[in-house]
Amino acid sequence: MSKAVQAAESARALLDRDDADGACNRAYYAMFDAARTALLDSGYDAGKTHRGVLNAFNDHLVKDGPMPKEAGRLLKHAEAFRYVADYSDNAVDLADANKMVEQTEAFVTAVRSFLAFRG
Residue 119: is its pLDDT beyond 70? Predict the structure, then answer.
């Protein structure tokens, strides 16, 4: 979970420097690492691929599990923004990046609460 927290902090710092693309990249990785940690803590091995982690998170922890459906939507939304930030010729809008970072902070907090509850 420490990687997720650090990536979320980096996303906020990049956003504060008006680096929308960098902020979206780090925001996605914060969510990816948090989702992977939640899966591993719950006894699921999703591997390390992006698709594997996203699918396993939704299948095991969102569909019928303890994480809210909104968490699954946020993770997929973050993935889409990362693709734009990393691979598109267009930059992510700063307002969109700000929303993404806020959602990431909420996602990481939700996963931390889930992990603490599982204790």
Answer: no
Structural domain containing residue 100: 2-118
> Coil, strand or helix: which one is 68?
coil
Rounded CA separation 6/46 (Å):
21
| Count: domains in the chain | 1
| % of the chain exceeding 90 in pLDDT | 91
Domain CATH for 32? 1.20.120.330
Q: Which runs of consecutive H residues, i.e. helices, occur in the chain?
A: 2-16, 20-41, 50-56, 69-87, 94-118
Please state, in angstroms and rounded to a whole number, the distance separating the CA atoms of residues 46 and 93: 32
pLDDT tens for 43-75 read 998 877 999 999 999 999 999 889 999 999 999
Among left, alpha and beta (phi > 0; psi -120 to 50; other), residue 93 is beta
Contact of 91 with 14, CB cutoff 8 Å: no
